Amino acid sequence: MANLVAILRWSVFSVVVVFSIIVLGVGSHVLKVILNFNNLKDLDDLDPVFLTITSTGKINCSFAGLAVATAVLTLLSVVAMGVVDHLRKDAITQKPIVEMCWFGFLWVLWLAAGAHTIATANDLGCNIALSLGISNSSCSEIHAIAAFSFLNWLTLMGYTAALLIICVFLAFRRGQTDVWYGSVKEIQLNNRNPASGEQTDVKVAPMSPGPQYPPHP
Fold it and tell me: What is the tens place of the pLDDT at every residue in 74-111?
C-alpha cells in the first residue's frame, strides 16, 4: 500500500513552493513600484498608481516586505527539506515534531502577511476601486499577494493539523509512542499494534521443517 502520509507531504511541499514563487514575484514587483512611488519628489506629475496616499505622501510597503521575506524563508526551508530527504534517511528535519513546529511558525507568518496585506489594501482604497469597477493593476497585485498568502496559510495549517492528528492516533490508539521522533515519510497508517490483538501487516516467514529421523527399531 502506498505511503499516504508521504504522498500528502510531497503534495503540500509542491503546492507551497508554487504559491511562494507567485508571492515572491508579485510581491517584489509591488515593492519596487511602491519604493519608486515614495522616492519621487513631484507627485503632481505622476499618473495615479494608487487611489489614495498617506498624509506624508508615502505608502507603507511593510506588507510587501513581509510577504517577500516569508516567501523566501518558505522556499529555502521547504527546498532544503526536500534535498535532505534524498540525501539522508533519518535527518532531524524529517521528524514529525520538528515539521509541526516549523510549519506552525511558517503558517503564522503567512497569516500575518495576508492580514497585513488586506489591511494595507483597505487603507489604499483598493476595495473602493473594486466596488466601483475601477481597474488598478497595483491593487490587483496586492489582492493577489493576500490571496496566495492565505492559501499558503491554509495549506500549511491543514497539513500541520493532519500530521498532529495522525501522530496522536498512532501514539495513543496503536501504542506507537516513538512516532513523534521517527521519520515522517516512514509513517504507515496501515500498521497495527500486535499487542492490541489487531491484525498486522507484518508477514511471518513459514518455519522450515526439522530434520527427519528414521523410526527407531
Answer: 999 999 988 888 887 777 888 888 889 999 999 999 99
Provide the residue count of the chain: 217
CA 126/CA 15 separation, integer angstroms: 28
What's the pTM?
0.76
pLDDT of residue 152: 97
Could you identify the residue written with the cell 475601477? Answer: 134
Q: What dihedral do alpha carbons 185, 188, 193, 197 form, nearest 10°? A: 180
The three cell numbers of residue 74 are 518558505
Q: Where are the domains positioned within the chain?
A: 4-46+59-192
Query: What are the cell numbers at 190?
Result: 496501515
Decide: 107 and 160 in contact? Cβ < 8 Å: yes
Query: Which residues have C-beta within 8 Å of that of residue 168, sequence separation ≥ 6?
Result: none
Listing DSSP states for 135-175 in one string gives: --HHHHHHHHHHHHHHHHHHHHHHHHHHHHHHHHHHHHTS-
* Spatial distance between the Cα atoms of 78 and 126, rounded to a whole number of angstroms: 33
Tell me which residue of 194, 211, 213 sits closest to 203, measured CA to CA. Answer: 194
Q: Rounded to an integer, what distance in angstroms lies between the CA atom of residue 35 and that of residue 26? A: 14
